[in-house]
Amino acid sequence: MFTDSHCHLSYPELAHDLPAIRAAMAAAQVTRALCICTTMEEFPAVQALADAHDNFWATVGVHPDSEGVHEPSQAELQAAAAAPRVVAIGETGLDYYQMQERKGGRSVADLEWQRQRFRTHIRAARAVRLPLVIHTRAASDDTLAILREEGEGAGDAACAGGVFHCFTETRAVARAALDMGFYVSFSGIVTFKSAHELHEVAKLVPDDRLLIETDSPYLAPVPHRGKTNTPAYVPHVAARLAELRGASVEHVARVSSDNFSRLFTKVRA
To answer: The domain that contains 180 carries what CATH number?
Structure first.
């Protein structure tokens, strides 16, 4: 019934308790999950999860905030993406907030390595015709600009589409992403009372571009806020979206699951 389109089950907070997590998913009617890769060093573990379980899939990519890790070439990303259960490139994108807050207050000019990494991921995704899983934080203008630049001459969007995951940006950014053909995914943040603008964004995203996620082990939704998040909590995200959109939980579950299969074409292959 429900699909968690973005989780990190290879992280130590969750990897040690996978049987219990899977049992909780089944009890909550969460039937599928996309396991997200954030470094190439992590990729074998992420891929192994997808290979071992018929309702898990995987991505390959390097998170924009990951430093001191192996920097993949476009060819490496393409080779990894050829694996049967690897359905997307990412998570990739730009994160200026993390750098400024945690790494000594760098300027945007110092983050060219992030932008080049993002371009490499976009080009790999376009080459293999797989969607992008995009992370953007405090960097939406550059994220959108690079997607547009890399899409020039491609004959369509920058790649085979993609999703702005764990969306926390403005309505204007959401509209720009939608206009470029991207999907928008909501996490437990949409259940927070203080997320007023995000609540408005949740009302404008059309049914055919909506995804839900946990981003577990982080960002547990209300009523589990502050706890370790798991895919079993994604129905709470669907319930809050249903309330905001004037729809039933079943409707949100159905359209978001249908969209997951539509975007990640290897899932239905």
So the answer is: 3.20.20.140
